[in-house]
Amino acid sequence: MSTTIPAVSTAAATSQVLVTRFQAIRRQSVALCRPLLPEDTVVQPMLDVSPPKWHLAHTTWFWETFLLREYLPGYQLFHPDYAFLFNSYYNSLGSRVNRADRGTISRPPLSDVYAYRTYVDKHMEQLLALQDTLPAAFAEVLELGLQHEQQHQELLATDIKYILSTSPLAPAYQEAPVQRAVAAVPAAAWLPVPGGVHTIGFEGTGFCFDNELARHKVYVDDFELQNRLVTNAEFLEFIEAGGYQNFRYWMGEGWDLVQSQHWTAPLYWIKQDNGWHRFTHHGLVPIELAAPVTHVSFYEADAYAQWRGLRLPSEQEWEIAARHFGATPQGGTFLESSLLDPQPLAPDADPTQCHQLLGDVWEWTYSAYHAYPGYQRAAGALGEYNGKFMVNQLVLRGGSCATPESHIRITYRNFFHADKRWQFTGIRLAR
Amino acid sequence: MSTTIPAVSTAAATSQVLVTRFQAIRRQSVALCRPLLPEDTVVQPMLDVSPPKWHLAHTTWFWETFLLREYLPGYQLFHPDYAFLFNSYYNSLGSRVNRADRGTISRPPLSDVYAYRTYVDKHMEQLLALQDTLPAAFAEVLELGLQHEQQHQELLATDIKYILSTSPLAPAYQEAPVQRAVAAVPAAAWLPVPGGVHTIGFEGTGFCFDNELARHKVYVDDFELQNRLVTNAEFLEFIEAGGYQNFRYWMGEGWDLVQSQHWTAPLYWIKQDNGWHRFTHHGLVPIELAAPVTHVSFYEADAYAQWRGLRLPSEQEWEIAARHFGATPQGGTFLESSLLDPQPLAPDADPTQCHQLLGDVWEWTYSAYHAYPGYQRAAGALGEYNGKFMVNQLVLRGGSCATPESHIRITYRNFFHADKRWQFTGIRLAR
Amino acid sequence: MSTTIPAVSTAAATSQVLVTRFQAIRRQSVALCRPLLPEDTVVQPMLDVSPPKWHLAHTTWFWETFLLREYLPGYQLFHPDYAFLFNSYYNSLGSRVNRADRGTISRPPLSDVYAYRTYVDKHMEQLLALQDTLPAAFAEVLELGLQHEQQHQELLATDIKYILSTSPLAPAYQEAPVQRAVAAVPAAAWLPVPGGVHTIGFEGTGFCFDNELARHKVYVDDFELQNRLVTNAEFLEFIEAGGYQNFRYWMGEGWDLVQSQHWTAPLYWIKQDNGWHRFTHHGLVPIELAAPVTHVSFYEADAYAQWRGLRLPSEQEWEIAARHFGATPQGGTFLESSLLDPQPLAPDADPTQCHQLLGDVWEWTYSAYHAYPGYQRAAGALGEYNGKFMVNQLVLRGGSCATPESHIRITYRNFFHADKRWQFTGIRLAR
Amino acid sequence: MSTTIPAVSTAAATSQVLVTRFQAIRRQSVALCRPLLPEDTVVQPMLDVSPPKWHLAHTTWFWETFLLREYLPGYQLFHPDYAFLFNSYYNSLGSRVNRADRGTISRPPLSDVYAYRTYVDKHMEQLLALQDTLPAAFAEVLELGLQHEQQHQELLATDIKYILSTSPLAPAYQEAPVQRAVAAVPAAAWLPVPGGVHTIGFEGTGFCFDNELARHKVYVDDFELQNRLVTNAEFLEFIEAGGYQNFRYWMGEGWDLVQSQHWTAPLYWIKQDNGWHRFTHHGLVPIELAAPVTHVSFYEADAYAQWRGLRLPSEQEWEIAARHFGATPQGGTFLESSLLDPQPLAPDADPTQCHQLLGDVWEWTYSAYHAYPGYQRAAGALGEYNGKFMVNQLVLRGGSCATPESHIRITYRNFFHADKRWQFTGIRLAR
């Protein structure tokens, strides 16, 4: 969380505007869970996935812990045990349920978690009415809480997908969208980006996370970026060329995984008699060749690039390019579209423009997720928000079809371990 | 499954009687799940526990697989994937969901499983109407299916207890029963049993499992058995004497577990400020000193006996004694009572009689679960029912408060690994 | 350890006889290690195997701990850390090196361990000279120490085999013996044994382990035993009939192992271009069809019997039969022969006699290793010798080609978990 | 391996000079193992450690595989199985012994490995005599082989230390050196380094590894570096301030390790009655307060810096500073000194100079080990030398007391996972 940059413009954020924004974001979390049955909300089929019930409760716990307990006089906790049950990873806030056990605890049931949400929302609205009397720190944590809930919305979308995928019934979360049929996308074009000393990191008056600061200078050489994402068709060439059987393209630890986990394609791909299929939020469907490839690990993204004789961009290159090309959310696929699947580039897309930088899939970079020069962890429990994860992970940029559009920006740094595949991750090539 | 002993008396088992019995047993499984929420029915907090939803479906799969597919002309499967989803351990019947993954599959939901039950029950009633036209093997498998469903009722009761226990909220499955307060039970008395050559194993005209056969002779020396179960008060003496801290009383593999699992008391015991409590089907309650100790592993039962300078009976001794004392279900606590907790012996119980042999808790014996002389595995898939488990486990006798009264008999052989504690297991001493 | 039976006849055991016997047994341990290089004596390629250096030291530690410290006035420990380093499993004697770490500790080196042996032997000879002045307990523990060292000689032989087998070089421990070529053995004959009430357990004036007591009565039905061991040729039929690919013959836990460990033959069998070979103490050699099959687990022995429609004997049957047939070591292969491989039955062996009961291979029985009726653990550290292992293992009878001939008797109970294969274990069928 | 930079100056490297250098480096490996017993050379007490016997053989395998087989006409392999036994991680060269099994294979014994070295050395000298007739690639791989053997010399020194440390006897590898007693070192001074665009990476005519290329520009801000390493005295303050008990200073994955591994001090530190001791190549000795702290993981180095409110340098900063300060090996402690322990800074060291940059301990940087811009993996098996490790590890700079002085340079990039502690790793602070 940024403590130096004002999270919200004081003028604009009247109490009513804030209440409306708060309610909209809170409703969005509930809306995402509406297609689920109670059974879906409690299971945890792998360690990275949290039960939807847990997400709904944990985001609520955040408001209760960091705002209601701090600022609302006389606030009574909804339930004394919920602090233990729904803390995620804050050592500052005491012991908590072991992460691996999140999916074995059936109580409180979903209905109690919804009651918890209602109770906290009601009190939050009381608190928001008092806003003018509260210190500046209140507005900052409020904004952080909204961003935090948006982050969990993306996790809800991807965790739900994983949960439903484990059933042999391949149940659909929603109906298949009526989509434009795109037979093929234009060949990727190389766009040059001038190197030199650039400044990266967040600048401006809105919100940013602390990991986007301090703004600082970097040097990069001239480079070129492909003007669109790698497609399923292109990735299929790698598969069919034996990419998953040849160690030469792989990082050593990636190759170990390919062998021990028997990886032969991206996550959710299944080869059936009549060809490759993918599990999606609308069930099992044939691979759409024109769509961007997704659910690949860093290892797969990197091996694909090696096989092509190319490379992934660094996060510095990505941000410089995004600014250079004036990337905007326009045309990107975000959570708000409800598509929950990256979309093919339009066949008539301008080959001189750089497309799909924001939305659709998170783009793996070949940059370790480390603190920027000048980074300082915040004091208190919220200092655990980002800083303690800044090793052993890689940066992804640009947001995905599960990211709220209002949540993304070109300085945004997402991060995952190199082996993770259950997020909407994809590939853009550089050279 | 017994293939030599007629499972039912042909004369008595008119079609209508059978339908009534079938319906009663099927209803009992559903009744056990009625207090559950859908969330409770899907989780698997440890490998030994199966989700209640799975039990409800698997018992139904049994009828579909072994009877409807075989005998009902034109029967259509409820769903083609259920054979994969709800097979337990029958290699003969193809691949199946990995046991460890039973608790991560949220679909089909509970409501579909109930629809599955209704569908199968309706067709089973059709099939039962045809009974007179069916071969003898039909009646045998029918009986086995009823017994099988009763076995899963006991597992439902104990798995539900474990599932609810994992929540810090300690939710109650049912209200606490209005129970007679028993301050203390009479001192245990030693009852002599004459040794010599005895015959054990099932004899008669009703049903028995194949593992109760062949009936065969054994020799035992004269021995004595305590006339009641070990109580919580007695076991507490072991705890307070440092029993869990002294390797001398323990089997080596048991002592390793005590240390690695940090066992300090039976499963479900929690020490709070005001003393020892137990988690039960009616929530967390203070230890009732007069009640039989339960949820102990063989290791704990054996260590307790060692500490007393006594021993556990063999299964042969147990069966000989039960016959010698004319053990009946009378006075025992069974599933039908809905108490789901072993009950204290009445203070005025006759000290010359042997009590609590049937019901209340399964009594660990110091006998390996091996085939009896003359045992033969049945042909076909049902040959996997018992035979392949006949090594590395120990026999328990007598049934528990979660066993249907109509399911138990003195020749009944239950079996678990020495470390298991989630069943209603207890201790009776011999010398 | 027997505490009730005098371990040695007082009259015969003059001091000099004892010294001679002590020296002979001590020399035998060293002789077994003579072909080894220091490197061979330190490694532990699997948990069950101990480094030969450890065996040499642990057996020495036994004398130091249980006799020299107790009975030799003014005895100085060879090294203060050796009690920690070379304790095996005696909780009574304090902490010790974790079993899994025995093979990672290179110091003390082998030469120090030999110096330790020399030092302890010298003091033991001093102590033996004082024998007449020592209490009866001394003679008992002395005898136990000799038996203990003989047990470790068998482990040395089998552990060395396993250690050498892990090298792709397949190094030979010794030259191949000049052996009679046996083309085929006579067909196995069934010999009847009359049932009834028999008495088993040790009786007499020599030494026995405490687990051979108390002598007690058992009832068995009439049965038949094969008059020789199962051969490689016979076991090969099982392999070639797909025995390792068909779950029907296997215990469930055995079948899990077959699949996870990819078992396709006994331990040490390797299929090469020109057929099956075995690793032996004399290197890699073609399977000798007439020799008894060895290095099979209980699971394999039992599956083989199931496949034949037969069964393994119980330990009671084995002992009754051995006494009935007057089994003697005569004609058996023992450690003293230095062959270290079970030998084929002579082609002209009398078909009316029962052969190979003692020596050659340990015969798996279908009896759990439990305490006999009346068994009592000894007091003190030596009470841990046998009693704490009496669950979850199976009894083997008869000794093997790695057992000292003077160590075996028909009441001897060896015991291993059902999955163990690195001992010289084999199969005799019953029905 | 660099393929673009000539590894050796053709003029200087006459055949005789090369033979002398080859022999000197080969002798050094053997010299390092001279204090060992055969038992020490075969064990592998943890996965990161390789048995010394394996190092001696693997370095020899390198010469045989990459030079003798390629370039010496008529060369006969020493042993056909050694390619399998002593390949480290080259997938290009076929299957190999599982890394975890290196320490369980006692054969070939050490003496055979020495014979292998002699055989290969003799043939290498023949080959070196033919040098003028060989292609340029020969000289490159020759140089790489020498550097490779020097890398394994460092591993030999650190692996031997770990192996000996596992014995409770704390055996000394060598006698304690006669060392200057240093009561205290001067307070650390901050030295400024001007930022801006700098060029880093190898430049010149000697050898470098491929990971030091391509030479490229980077931008850094002005920064300051401490002019010496962190000492044991300083690190002890962190310990005594509860640094190992407070999650706030730690990366999340580091804190998990602290708890699960019970870390309370650097590796090899043991608290005894009279204070902290360290295991060293000369046995267990009291902590020398003035010496640089060593055997810390990245997590500990980073937590220490966090606790001080400071940070670790990036690898770019380190290299820029080293060039800025004109770092030379002068005054550093290297393998050639045989001290095998980092040395305290002289009390009269010039506070305006930057000390201990080369030698003594590897300095953790907060830079991921990634490919430099323009990096290309070499073709063939040697392309696996570095490239496939370029993710999930951190860069260390400067060499240590176990690094050959002729092996280090300021562009040298060493790399380890953040949790590794068995190398001579240490801390230098930046701000």
Automatic annotation (TrEMBL), chains A, B, C, D:
Domain DinB-like: start-end pairs: 22-155
Coiled coil: none
UniProt keyword annotation of Acyltransferase present: no
Pfam families: DinB_2, FGE-sulfatase
Family matches, as InterPro entries: CTDL_fold, DinB-like, EgtB, Sulfatase_Mod_Factor_Kinase, SUMF_dom, SUMF_sf
Sulfatase-modifying factor enzyme-like domain segment(s): 188-324, 351-431
Pathway membership, UniProt: Amino-acid biosynthesis; ergothioneine biosynthesis
UniProt GO BP: ergothioneine biosynthetic process
Keyword Oxidoreductase attached: yes
Entry keyword set: Iron, Oxidoreductase
Domain of life: Bacteria
Listed PANTHER family: HERCYNINE OXYGENASE, SULFATASE MODIFYING FACTOR 1, 2
Protein name in the entry: Ergothioneine biosynthesis protein EgtB
Species of origin: Hymenobacter taeanensis
